[in-house]
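Recall that a protein's primary structure is simply its ordered list of amino acids. Everything else, from secondary elements to tertiary packing, is in principle encoded there. The following example makes that idea concrete.
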Amino acid sequence: MHRFSRIPSFGILGTHPPTPCGIATFSAALSDGLEAKGASVTVVRVADEFPSARINVIGELVNGSPKSVAACSELLNQNDIAVIQHEYGIYGGLDGEEVVQIMAGLHVPSIVIAHTVLKDPTPHQRSVLEAVAESADQVVVMSEAARLRLGLSYAIDRNKVVTIPHGATVPHSATQRRPRRPIILTWGLLGPGKGIERVIDAMASLKDLPGQPRYLIAGRTHPKVLAAEGEAYRESLIEQARCLGIAASVSFDPVYRSAADVIALVQSAAVVVLPYDSRDQVTSGVLVDSVASGRPIVATAFPHAIEMLGSGAGTVVSHDDPDALVSALRRLLTDPRIAGSMAAESRELAPTVAWPVVANTYVALAQRLVGARLALT
C-alpha cells in the first residue's frame, strides 16, 4: 500500500456553530482537534438562520438547491479527504437523502460519521443510510452498540465500519468546589424525550434528605421545539414541580454557556442524570462529556449508557422503574464511597475519549484511506 506520511487536509460537512445542536458542537470540536494536530481543515456548514463567523467555514450548503449541492461537493473535493456528518434531520430531501447526491460528486476518499443508527428505521431511512455507507470509504460509529446494529440490521459492508469514540474535553483539574446543596444535573438542549419528568418525580421522594439536593436543568430549549411550541414543554415541567410541592428544589437555567463554563458546571454536580426516553440511542455527547468531567452518572438504559457505564462509572436504571431511579440517586447522595468509586472510574475512562486522542485516530484513518486511494492510481 502507498504510504501517505503527511497529515491530510480535511473537508468537513455538517451543521456547525453557531447552530445550536449536538452535531454542530461535535463538528467544531473535531475541527479544532484536527487543527491542533497540524491538519488543514475547512468546513461546509448546513445553512440556517445563524450566520457563522468561524474562519474555516468556506461555504454553506443550502438544502433543496441542486446548484448548492454540486458546489458543496466541489468544496469538499479541494481537500485530501471529506468527512460527512450523517444525521437524518440536517440535510435536504426526505430523511436527508440529498447527502447521497453530495457524496456522488466526491472525487476524494470520504469518512461518514453516523450519529444515529436506528434500531427500527423506516424502509427509506434504511436505504438512505445504506446508500451513504455504499458511497463512503469508511463509516465511523461512536459505540460498539452502533457497530453491531449496523452489521446486523443494515446491508452495509462490515469491513467499512470502525468505532471511534465521541471526543470530549478532559478538564485539567479533577476537583471543583461544590455548593452546599448537592446538585443533581441534567444538561443539554431541552425538549420532549429527555425524560426530565422522571427526575422531577424522583425529587419528591428525595426531599427528606438532610442535604436538600437541588435538581438543575441547564440548557436552552431546542430551537426546533421553540419554533413549534414555544416554551410549553419547559412550562409543563415547572408546573409539575409546583404541583409536587418541590418547586424550591427544581431549577431551570436556560443561559448559553461556553464549553469551559459547561465543564465547570458539570464538575460542580454531585451526580449527572441522563433520564432519556430513548431506548435506541447509540451516541450521547452529553454522556461522554459527563464521564470526561469525572462525575458519577445515573442514566436510563439506552445502549450507549449501558456500554459506557458498564465498568462502574455510573448506574443504569430501567426506563419503567421509578423506584430504581430514586434508589440510585439516594445511594449516590448519601454514600460518599459509592459516589467516589464511580467518579474515579469516570476519571479512569476520561483519557480514552480526550479530543487529542480521538483526533489522532481520525488522522491515522485518513492517512490510511488516502494512501489506499493513491495506490490505485
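The two ends are 11 Å apart (CA to CA). The chain has a mean pLDDT of 93.
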